[in-house]
Design a protein that fits this description.
Blueprint: H1 6-27, H2 30-37, H3 41-47, H4 51-71, H5 80-97, H6 99-108, H7 112-115, H8 122-136, H9 145-161, H10 167-185
Helix pairs in contact: 1-2, 1-6, 2-3, 4-5, 4-6, 4-8, 5-6, 5-9, 5-10, 9-10
Amino acid sequence: MRRKDDEKEKSIKEAVVKLILELGFHGTSISKIAKEAGVSPATVYIYYENKEIMFQDIYYEYSEEIFDYLLSMVYKNMDGHELIEILVRGYYTYIKENGEIFHFVDQFSSCPALACHCLDRKGVKNLNNLFEEMKQQRVLKDIQNDNLIAILFFPIKSIASNQCIGEVERDDLLKELITIIQDALLA
């Protein structure tokens, strides 16, 4: 039996992200992934049973990475203003520093086949637990967590992805957005 190699696995993941963004789900084949990764198709099957499982596994890994990144900046007993600013700026920074991975995750986050497993993910559970704790402490308004997530994170994508504005204008938009979100969500 052939052994797994971390570098080959990394190359395969990078190839998947690149090709999905360029060609979409249906345009991306195992042979194209293997060619882009510089491995044989047989090597791809050492790591993943099939294309669908590969896409799912990579999606879950990278979406968890985003949650881990954000939640690593949160500490116990932080005040609501700081929490919102850290989450907003952290998400913005993640998008800017990991654009391809973010767009891959974003593209797959609306996939119905993946939606049924959303609540099973550790990152979502941890974020929901944080929100529940902050609501119990009366830091956040008692708003459904899906709405908290939408208000906190969706507007940031718009700012981070807008190629028509410069960094100074983006920073001004982020500052204003943080204030708007704080006014909307803090108890």
